[in-house]
Amino acid sequence: MTDLTLMTFANDPATVLPSLALLSHRVRVLPMDAASLVKMPENTVLFLDARDDLATAKTLCRLIHASGLATPIVLILTEGGFTVVNSQWGIADVVVASASPAEVEGRLRLVSERGNAPITGASATDDSERTEDGQIRSGDLVVDTNGYTASLHGRPIDLAYKEFELLKYLVQHPGRVFTRAQLLQEVWGYDYYGGTRTVDVHIRRLRAKLGGEYEHLIGTVRNVGYRFDPPEGEGDKSLAAPAASDDTDADAQ
User: Fold this and answer.
1) Is 141 in contact with 214 (CB distance < 8 Å)?
2) pTM for the structure as a whole
3) How far apart are CA 240 and CA 246, in angstroms?
4) What pLDDT, in 10s, does the model give residues 87-138?
5) Does the first or last residue of the chain, that is N or C, have fewer Cβ atoms within 10 Å of its Cβ?
6) DSSP of 166-231, one letter per residue?
C-alpha cells in the first residue's frame, strides 16, 4: 500500500482519476495550491490534477522543485494536455484521467521505484550502448544522432527526417512504452496539430524499412502505444502485438 496525495480543484475528487478508488492505496486529497505543499507527508506520490488548469499545475511543479522536495509527481491529463507537457516540468510520469486501474497501478509502481526522474530522462539500458561520437548501438542497429543516419549490418537505412527522429527517440528509451500522444509531443512537437494516427503511419514505414527480420524491434503494446525492444530482449516479444493489428491508415504529416 502506497501513500498518495491528490491535489485538485474538483468538487468531487473521485471523478479526477476514477481508477484510484479501485486500488488499495491511501489517498489524501488536498486543494491545488501552494499552501497544500506544506501539508503533504514526506513519503508520498503526488497526483496533480492538470486536466483543466495546466498553468497552475506547472507552477506547482516548479514550486516543489524550488523548495527541494523530492516528491514524485504524476500529472493527470486529458489527451490534449500532452501537447504542452515536457521534461522541463520535472515530473515522474503522466496518466490520462480515463486510465484503467491496471495502468495506474503499473505507472505508480514504476514511479515508486525510480523516484522523480523526469519521464524523458531515461538513459539507455545495457541493451543499447551510446558512444562518445553520438552513436547509439543496439545489436546490429546503429543510430547516429550527430549525423542523422541509421544503419543495419553497416548498411544505411533510407529514412525521412521524422522517421529518423521517431526511431532515435524510441532507441534512446529501450523497453519503455509510449502512447501515440507522447510520441507526437516528443517527436513532432507542441506546434503540431495533426492527429495521433500519423504516428502509426511512421511506425509502419519504419518497420518496413527495418525489414522482416528486424521489424519486431518496434513493438506494439495493444491499446497503449509503442516501444523499442532491443535484440537481446527478444524473449519479451510475446508482449507486443503484431504490427498490423493496432495500426490504421492515415495521412502522413
Assistant:
1) yes
2) 0.48
3) 10
4) 778 888 899 999 999 999 988 888 887 655 544 433 444 445 555 567 888 8
5) N
6) HHHHHHHSTT--EEHHHHIIIII-TT--S-THHHHHHHHHHHHHH-TTTGGGEEEETTTEEEE--G
